[in-house]
Amino acid sequence: MHNQAHDTPPHIQKMLIAGYRKMSPQQKLKRVSELTLAVQQLALARIRKHYGPLSEREQHLRLASLWLDRETMKRVFHWDTLKEGY
User: Fold this and answer.
1) If you placed Cys at 72, which of 29, 68, 79, 84 could pair as Cys (CB 3.0 to 4.6 Å)?
2) Which contacts qualify for 60-69: CB closer than 8 Å, 24 or more apart?
3) 7 falls in which pLDDT band (50, 70, 90)?
4) More confident site: 5 or 69
5) Does 55 reside within a domain?
6) Percentage of residues in the chain with pLDDT exceeding 70?
């Protein structure tokens, strides 16, 4: 198995893996949750920059459309990504 990230030196990669192995499942879950939130915040910033001022609902719909397929967006939110965009 090859775990080496292309932009991370091998000695740093080993330190990261050792640190992850020491983390409890709760700590790992918290880290994943924090990273997910950070990715969502970056995506929202990109959406705001691209579309300008939007309602909170539209921001969340556009964010959701980055993760959900078109059919789910149409069925659940009545949002067609082909017409509205992401």
Assistant:
1) 68
2) 62/86
3) confident
4) 69
5) yes
6) 94
Q: How many domains does the chain have?
A: 1
Rounded CA separation 13/37 (Å)? 24
Q: Does 77 reside within a domain?
A: yes
**Domain annotation covers residue 64:** yes
For residue 34, what are the domain limits?
Answer: 24-84
Distances (CA, A) of 23 to 19, 20, 60, 71: 7, 5, 32, 38
- Asked if residue 66 belongs to a domain, the reply is yes
Instruction: Transcribe 13-71 into DSSP letters.
Output: HHHHHHHHHHS-HHHHHHHHHHHHHHHHHHHHHHHHHHH-S--HHHHHHHHHHHHS-HH
